[in-house]
Amino acid sequence: MPGPSGSAPISPGVAVRGAAAGVLALALAWFSFAGAVSNNFHRRNPDTALNFVGDDAVALAAQADRRFAAAGAKAADDPEIQAAARASLARQALNPVALRVLGISASIKGGFEAGRPAMAAANRLTRRDLATQFWLIEEAVSRGDVAGALGHYDHALRTKPASQQVLFPVMTVAAEDPVLWPAFARYVREPAPWLGDFARFAVRNTKQPGVIARFFQRAGGLPHDEAFAALEAELLKRLVEAGSFADAARYYRSLSGADPAILAETGFTGATTQEKFAPLTWELFAGPGISGAFLRDEKGETIRLHATMETSATGAVARKIVYVEPGDYRFRAIQRTASSAEGAAARWEMRCGASRGGNVLWSKQAPLAPEGAAVEDVIAIPAGCDAITLRLLSSAGTSPNGIEAIFGPASLVRLRN
């Protein structure tokens, strides 16, 4: 029977040659201790483990693996590393780490073809070895096997979540290539357990948010649950901030619950005030001393924007992207305060494109007072300006208790010549 941790068998002759029960007990104690040390250290500290059990297969493989990692490409020419891997394999044939060390060494010298037998054997034994999966990814890519490479990405991410930091940047670039979409889309449709983390990384790090949006659309859309809904909203904002308004509108139309009519509306309705689609719907800002909310009137029929502002507070209250055609438009908005508001004012503005950096097409400021007033003007929207940002800013003035400003209804209507 083998001794602890694969050590040499203890035959009855050992005890006989010991000539005393004490010697046998000492021998058994030694092997017990050696096995315990080996089991504890053969992976974490293979050199220490091998001091106790010189032919421990796992420790030999771990030693070869660590030395290989330290030597890099030079490891293929290191006879000690190769010897340790082969010795480990001789002691334990089902040994994916030793196979992988030998396979990568062979690949360094003779290319993927030379390393393929050992790496294929390592993969058959386990799909949890990250380095093996990385090699298989590269080997599949070298053959132009996109589906195969993505399959190994999937194995790595399912078994080793820590691989995300290495794989997600590469996968984001892959998702930006429409040629790869057919093979990649299955992991969105299934969906893969790592999809949420990947989608979040891609949305936040891609330099081409419009392409990522089209990828998700082509794959059938992200799963319909709350976590992915937040990502959809985040992607909409990224598209807007990148100035990709056509992509933002296209992506919005693909989402569950989307109402295409809101793209051209400015009024405060149930559809235009859905937070999850902002800023294609109305987006509220919260800043120092400023907060806002959309509230229905007592009859529940009309929605107004209520902005609460502390004394002297000033800043943006809300914005909405509005899709337009060139021409003349009439803008009209009603605004008032709930009580007296010394020096309070509101400013409406329209920019062509994004709220930052876009050309200001129109801006108008008017005082805020309890009796209310209308802000009204005719605005010319030029050709080439397919989307505008309508933004509301306000200042509370010097009222000692701050103010509550109430806005709406608001409208933007094209004038027909």
Low-pLDDT segments, ≥5 res = 1-43, 46-54
- Specify the biggest β-sheet: 5 strands, antiparallel
Q: Structural class, from secondary structure content? A: alpha+beta
- The amount of beta strand, in percent, is 15-25%
Number of helices: 16
Topology pattern, helix = H, strand = E: HHHHHHHHHHHHHHHHEEEEEEEEEE
| Gap between N and C termini | 99 Å
Strands of the largest sheet, in order across it?
Answer: 1-4-9-6-7
How many runs of DSSP E, i.e. beta strands?
Answer: 10
Q: Whole-number radius of gyration?
A: 34 Å
Mean pLDDT: 84
Helical percent range?
40-55%
Described by the principal axes of the CA atoms, the overall outline is elongated
How are the elements arranged and paired?
Layout: H1 12-18, H2 21-41, H3 46-52, H4 57-71, H5 79-91, H6 96-110, H7 112-125, H8 130-142, H9 146-159, H10 164-175, H11 181-184, H12 186-189, H13 195-205, H14 209-218, H15 226-241, H16 245-253, E1 283-284, E2 290-296, E3 303-309, E4 314-323, E5 327-337, E6 345-352, E7 359-367, E8 373-381, E9 387-395, E10 403-414
Antiparallel strand pairs: 1-4, 2-3, 3-10, 4-9, 5-8, 5-10, 6-7, 6-9
How would you characterize this protein structure?
By secondary structure, the chain is α+β, with helices and mostly antiparallel strands. It has 16 helices and ten strands. The strands form two sheets. A five-stranded antiparallel beta sheet has the order 1-4-9-6-7, with no helix packed on it. The protein has a five-stranded antiparallel beta sheet with strand order 2-3-10-5-8, with no helix packed on it. Strand 6 and strand 7 form a beta hairpin. Helix 4 packs antiparallel against helix 5.
